[in-house]
Design goal:
Layout: H1 7-15, E1 92-96, E2 101-104, H2 105-118, E3 124-128, E4 134-138, E5 151-159, E6 164-170, H3 174-187, E7 192-196, E8 202-203, E9 206-207, H4 213-217
Antiparallel strand pairs: 1-6, 1-7, 2-5, 3-6, 4-5, 8-9
Helix pairs in contact: 2-3
GO biological process, one term: mitochondrial translation
Keywords: Ribonucleoprotein, Ribosomal protein
GO cellular component, one term: mitochondrial large ribosomal subunit
Length: 245
């Protein structure tokens, strides 16, 4: 160090010492030994995650919008299937009764909001039985024929005839649920009906009420000729037309 430096500064520099300070907080009882327990993780258990799933929801799936898809038709149960015609998870349901159609995600969202607005303050759970996984591609107005399929417009769902769309379960009176589904059916295209758990399924347009699916699929039985009784002849002497018994 330069000799011209004042002696007070030299003494101050010499008094400086580099000391290591511990970064951890000292224990209150250093003599007590603390045993850290080891947490055993369960096997084959999915841990909780706060990350939002990328699978999409029932109104907008995680599908590439640039990939064009055909319009298609709704499922027609020609083989005697009763899939989707009964209430499975809830106590009440909303079922379409006229014919199959394609319903947009906007209409289904409006129906869901209508039910939630009617049941505000109630304890319930709403189940969705359809998924808007069909992309609708349209062309603009005054576009010449050809020139491709068009751009993406909205998502939609194919709903078959007599299919359950929404189900409801909770501490709700039947009349309240019936009124909520009535308001939701007015927002959706087509004709809808209110169904309850335990009602018979439907095959096509035939309700299996008192008849089983096996009896419905069974071919027509032959009636022996001996069991058929002919119609009696007329007593007034007039001829009976051939198209009458």
């Amino acid at each position: 160090m330069n000799s011209k430096t004042p002696s007070c500064l030299v003494g101050a520099f010499r008094s400086l010492r580099i000391s290591h300070t511990p970064t951890t907080r000292p224990l209150a009882h250093p003599s007590t030994s603390i045993a850290i327990p080891k947490i055993q993780c369960a096997q084959n258990v999915r841990l909780f995650s706060a990350t939002a799933s990328m699978g999409g929801n029932w109104l907008e799936p995680n599908i590439n919008r640039k990939k064009k898809m055909m319009k298609g038709r709704a499922r027609v149960a020609t083989g005697g299937s009763t899939k989707g015609t009964t209430v499975m998870w809830g106590d009440y349901g909303l079922r379409m009764i006229d014919h199959h159609r394609r319903i947009s995600a906007a209409n289904l969202k409006i129906a869901e909001d209508t039910i939630k607005k009617r049941l505000r303050g109630q304890k319930y759970r709403l189940y969705k039985r359809v998924c808007c996984n069909v992309g609708v591609f349209v062309s603009g107005n005054e576009i010449r024929m050809g020139k491709g399929k068009g751009s993406f417009d909205h998502w939609a769902a194919r709903v078959a005839v007599n299919q359950i769309v929404l189900e409801l379960r909770g501490m709700i009176h039947e009349q309240v649920a019936r009124d909520a589904f009535r308001l939701a059916g007015n927002k959706l295209p087509g004709q809808w009906e209110f169904v309850k758990r335990g009602e018979p399924p439907i095959v096509g347009i035939t309700k299996l009420d008192g008849i089983t699916l096996e009896d419905l699929k069974r071919p027509r039985r032959k009636v022996p000729a001996e069991s058929i009784t002919p119609a009696p002849p007329p007593t007034d002497g007039q001829r009976t037309p051939l198209d009458l018994p």
